[in-house]
Amino acid sequence: MQLKPLLLTALLCLSAPSFAQPGPKELHNIQKAISNAQTDLKQKQAAQRRAQAALSASLNALEKARRELAAITRQQNAAWNQLQKLQSELEQVKTEVTGTKAQITRLLAGHYKNRQPNSISLFLKNAEPGQKARYLQYIKHINQANEQVIHNLVKQQKELEQQEKAIDTELNRLKKLKAAQQAALKKLGKTRSTAQQQSNELNAQISNQTQKIAKLREDERRLNNILADISRRNTASRKAQAQSRKQAAQERIKKSNQAQKQTKQKNNTIPRGNLTAEDRALSGPDQSQGGSFSRMQGRLHKPVGGSVAGRFGQARSTGGTWRGVFFATPPSGVSSVASGTVAYAGTLGGYGNTVVIDHGGGYVSIYTGLNSIGVSGGANVGSGSYIGTSGTLPAGEQGLYFEIRYRNQPMNPLSWIR
């Protein structure tokens, strides 16, 4: 019975590294935050559509008010023309009243000069009989004319008062109507201005948020390209190591079989627990750095001092979500959370000065917003090694932004840090 191949297989199985997969809760938080950001953008777009509708309604109301004001102005012009006509008629009435007053004045003067109360009786008494009837008719016509003059004066004065009152009433009505319409027009103008301002502000907010989201996606794409390249190199390295281990194992098995054939054994089986020196020399594959890193969950030290100001999965004030953790701190030294190889050290658009450390096995840690970088690409760093100084993110936050990713999937760094 060949125990050595079975033993080697067991060692290979036991030595396979266990990788900590991103938790469903963490992925759910990211998806929820993205959904919230999209919902917020949709709400802003809906508010912008409502503002545009309000602006359109305001413009329509303003145009209607302008038409009404123009109609009032036309009415006012017509009333003014009517006023001119009434004033002309009024002047004519005043002239007639003046003439009537003159007639009455002459009549009163005649009566004043003739102070004999019985003068008409004496005049008729001394008149010839044939002329008395004619004189009486004259006197009757004179009295009727005098009465008519007085009646016309009273009538003309009433008409004068009525026309003046009508003119004043019409002018006051038009004045109030125009004032009310001008006030409404002013109010509509303010409403239109407010609606226009709100629409412009919403357009600006939507434009800014769209640009920020596009920029964040572009920044994320660049970082993902770097991480994808690291992942490809790690995959190739793992395949090469696995192939090397396989060949080494096959070579050891081959040598072991040859040794068995050359050794005479009394029994065909090997007692349990009675391994040869050759058996004890067999060993499983070395644990990779990734396997070592995965066992450090909850035991990593913080990369920098300061307080947590942005948590994994939370929405950012500048748009998007935190896919790592942000430590708010004045400029301070930044250290690697674990040993590894510097895969990238330089400026990355949207992240500022950035260091990416490959810990093997698909695990990387990312440090962004650095004021200065203290390592170079390809350098090996140990746990706690100085890699730079914290500074300010491009969005203006002062501190350090830190991520941990497994095979390019963001993980919650706070679950790894003690």
TrEMBL record:
Alphabetized CDD domains for the sequence: M23_peptidase
Signal peptide residues on this chain, from the entry's feature table: 1-20
Gene Ontology terms, MF aspect: metalloendopeptidase activity
Biased composition (Low complexity): 237-247, 256-268
Biased composition (Polar residues): 285-295
Gene3D superfamilies: 6.10.250.3150, Glucose Permease (Domain IIA) (2.70.70.10)
Domain M23ase beta-sheet core: 322-413
Residue ranges the record marks as coiled coil: 27-103
Domain of life (superkingdom): Bacteria
Region ranges (Disordered): 227-313
Keywords: Coiled coil, Signal
Official protein name in the record: Putative metallopeptidase
Lineage, broadest ranks: Bacteria, Pseudomonadati, Pseudomonadota, Betaproteobacteria, Neisseriales
